[in-house]
Write the structure tokens for this entry.
Amino acid sequence: MSHLEALYEYRYLLWMWMQRELRVRYKQAVLGAAWAVLQPVALMAVFTLVFSVLGRFPTDGIPYPIFVYAALLPWTFLQTSINFGVPSVVTNMNLVTKIHFPREILPLATIGAAFFDLLVASSVFLGMMVLYQVPLTISLLWLPLLLSIQTALTVGIVLALAALNVFYRDIRFVMPLATQLWMYATPIIYPLNIVPERLRPVYALNPMVGLIDGYRSVLLAGSPPEFGPLGISAVAAVIAVAVGYGYFKRAEKTFADLI
């Protein structure tokens, strides 16, 4: 039986573990799942104050709050997946050492829970589209492709880092700083067009560049994503998921001995 066939056989466990992740995350939280909305909304408010009121970025006529929120939604999905997914194998050491099941279920469940948070936080975005009179266009049909590419990229990164974290526990301490630096190297608080033209080929090697710019294009501008940067993102996603999953399954054999 291949690894993917085994994962399919345990799909119910994956579904149940994802629900457990959500219950544990919001257990005894007064606001419950509203915390999924609070983080991107709070960041949107701060960025709007700093970069729209105190210092202005050009946004091609798009109101800055919805401009930045359209980027914060997918970014928060990636960041939450990394924050909860990287330590997931070590955190559940009792299960890893005692019960046989595909170990990738643990990080994949955290990604599924983060995707649920994304859906919850998207309700605010829909309200902002109504508030700022942003029309729905046929370009929204590109949205499933963007989400698929980002999900594949996220899966590859999280699986690789979750396996590395078993061997090197420093990983979980490094990741918050690394993701913070990555955010500022991605066009989230500023538009892509302020990056100097000569630097854009190198800048676009960041796989989140094509994705973030693509989300803004289809959601706010009503146009298809730029295929050049998005193509780089797609290639990076395929490589990430292939390398990340392959490395995780090879390293999985020694998890019980190291944890």
Summary: Residues 105-131 form the longest helix (27 residues).
